[in-house]
Design brief:
Elements: E1 13-14, E2 16-18, E3 21-23, E4 28-32, E5 39-44, H1 48-63, H2 72-88, H3 90-101, H4 105-129, E6 134-138, E7 144-153, E8 156-160, H5 166-179, E9 183-187, H6 194-205, E10 213-215, H7 224-230, E11 236-240, H8 243-254, E12 259-263, E13 268-272, H9 278-290, E14 300-306, H10 307-322, H11 342-357, E15 361-364, E16 384-387, E17 404-410, H12 413-421, E18 425-426, E19 428-432, H13 436-442, E20 450-453, E21 468-469, E22 472-473, H14 478-484, E23 486-494
Parallel strand pairs: 1-5, 8-9, 8-11, 9-10, 11-12, 13-14, 13-19, 14-17, 16-17, 19-20
Antiparallel strand pairs: 2-3, 4-5, 6-7, 7-23, 12-22, 15-16, 18-21
Helix pairs in contact: 2-4, 2-6, 3-4, 4-5, 9-10
Nicotinamide-adenine-dinucleotide binds at residues 160-164, 169, 187, 189-190, 219-221, 225-226, 229, 240-242, 245, 248-249, 263-266, 297, 399, 401, 427, 467, 471-472.
Length: 495
């Protein structure tokens, strides 16, 4: 079948990358386009033996190969060369990301591929300036010591990534792991395997030594994901995905007491105060609820609006939401692409139904758009706004991971803080206000890893990123990533 948005030529079939070689296997699964429900390419699933080969190659690379003896300066140059290749082959990465996810081209250009390049460059440069501690010490008997710390790689890192931002998620883990001198085995999502193999091509072309960067394809339980996280030869797991998968992985690594870094789900609350710049808040909530068709862990699915502006806010958000253009990735002005799959659309639609059963009043959307052309074959869904749900409704507590937004009025700071915090998740929040003191008062009281004030999803890669409660364990970003991907040793010298 000829796809409107095909994969680049090198991905006719999607191969694993192990020990510097592209590896095919006897077991294939389909990479399905969310835009037409048809297979884009076949993916070679890695079995436990291939995962074992990847982990052993990674171990060899850090313990015996040139990577293990490389300086941070050499690794930084290598990572910049990988970024150069991605930049040169930008259009192939763009095509792969759009074909796998069905998202607007402009988004994939400015967010996904851009961030892939930025992750390699940022961590290459941060690695160069990473510093440790230094102390001069005098003991009671007059003995003089100097203490200093060195950073050493953990060894072999297993990376398990999700489908919602494939290039971004994988490179966000691989770049800091590599600059710290580790080798990595990456298991991308079975829904979005293409860009991982393209990144392997970029690493190959950039001269990353064999075994340092590996990709194994497959599913979670009973497949490559489980084989990798259960492998005794890994030293740490960095995982992004659903909270219950994080829990399964934690059990898998418990016996070996491996280090974990988990970026998990969210049910994020946004707060709009009556003193906010009204139009900016409407635009901000529109973006934070519907970007990437609501498939960003940071999206706001719960929005609390101060009562005096509530009705006006609901009307303004409804008008802007209904003006959002849904369609093919390359349509001029398109704001929302498809969901990741038809199966995920079924899940999102089940929440549309549940919300009404739970007493929601539908303000906008609530179904599937009808185009009257071939777009009807895509996994599209309408951006949906509800009001009227009680705070204990399932739709107010479970992550839908689709373009949904529930608006509720509130009357006081203390009340809204309590309601936003009354969630088993704790990833992100955004506050819309022009009151400086209020912003500083409210932000630290929210039990989340990231609070944005008058903005959303604006990231500086040097800042800590992660969640509390069911939203994750640990922080990555900047030195926090370097701290996770390296082991610190103290060296104490008598002088
Ligand atoms: P998922 O947990 O279903 O899958 C993520 C990855 O884990 C996939 O590669 C999958 O194959 C693998 N996997 C599944 N079961 C496994 C197991 N038992 N052992 C090993 N690997 C296993 O998540 P998803 O549906 O791909 O992604 C959406 C979720 O990711 C949402 O909950 C979203 O909030 C979350 N997410 C969080 C962040 C964050 O930074 N906090 C970022 C992006 C996505």
């Amino acid at each position: 079948m000829v796809h409107r948005f095909p994969l680049p030529a090198s991905l006719k079939s999607i191969r694993n990358y192990v020990d510097g070689e592209f590896v095919t296997t006897g077991k294939l699964f389909d990479n399905i386009s969310p835009l037409d429900g048809q297979p884009l390419a076949q993916v070679h699933e890695a079995d436990a033996a291939l995962v074992d080969r990847a982990v052993r190659a990674a171990r060899h690379a850090v313990e015996e190969g040139p990577w293990g003896r490389s300086t941070v300066e050499e690794r930084a140059k290598t990572l910049h060369r990988v970024a150069d290749v991605i930049e040169r082959r930008f259009d192939e990465f763009l095509a792969a990301e759009v074909a796998d996810t069905g998202r607007p081209l402009e988004q994939a250009r400015k967010l996904d591929v851009y961030r892939g390049i930025a992750n390699f460059r940022t961590f290459a440069d941060l690695g160069r300036v990473a510093h440790g501690d230094f102390f001069e010490t005098t003991l009671a008997d007059g003995t003089r010591l100097i203490n200093y710390t060195v950073r050493k790689p953990l060894g072999v890192v297993a990376s398990i990534s999700p489908w919602n931002l494939p290039i971004l998620s994988l490179t966000w883990k691989a770049a800091p792991a590599l600059i710290c001198g580790n080798a990595i085995v990456c298991k991308p999502s079975e829904e979005t395997p293409s860009s991982a193999t393209l990144i392997a091509e970029a690493c190959h072309e950039a001269g990353v030594p064999p075994g340092v960067f590996n990709v194994v394809h497959g599913f979670g339980p009973g497949s490559a994901g489980e084989a990798l996280t259960r492998h005794p030869g890994i030293d740490a797991v960095t995982f992004t995905g659903e909270s219950r998968t994080g829990s399964a992985i934690m059990k898998a690594v418990a016996d070996g007491v491996k280090e974990v870094s988990f970026e998990l789900g969210g049910k994020n609350g946004a707060i709009v105060f009556a003193d906010a710049d009204f139009d900016a808040a409407v635009d901000g909530v529109l973006r934070s609820s519907f970007t990437n068709t609501g498939q960003v862990c940071l999206c706001s699915e719960r929005v609390y609006v101060e009562r005096p502006i509530f009705d006006r806010f609901v009307a303004a958000l409804k008008a802007k939401t209904e003006a959002l253009k849904i369609g093919w990735p390359d349509e001029p002005g398109v704001a929302m692409g498809s969901l990741i799959s038809h199966a995920h659309r079924d899940k999102v639609l089940s929440y549309f139904k549940l919300a009404l059963e739970e007493g929601a009043q539908l303000i906008s959307g609530g179904g599937v758009p009808h185009f009257g052309d071939e777009r009807d074959g895509g996994a599209f869904v309408q951006p949906t706004i509800w009001v009227g749900l009680p705070d204990d409704a399932r739709c107010m507590n479970e992550e839908v991971f689709g373009p949904v937004c529930h608006l509720a009025p509130f009357d006081s700071e203390d009340e809204v803080i309590r309601r936003v915090n009354a969630s088993s998740y704790g990833l992100a929040s955004s506050i819309w206000t022009n009151h400086l003191g209020r912003a500083h008062r409210v932000a630290p009281r929210l039990h989340v890893g990231i609070v944005w004030v008058n903005t959303w999803f604006s990231r500086d890669l040097r800042t800590p990123f992660g969640g509390s409660k069911l939203s994750g364990i640990g922080r990555e970003g900047g030195r926090h990533s370097l701290d996770f991907y390296s082991e610190t040793s103290n060296i104490c010298i008598r002088v």
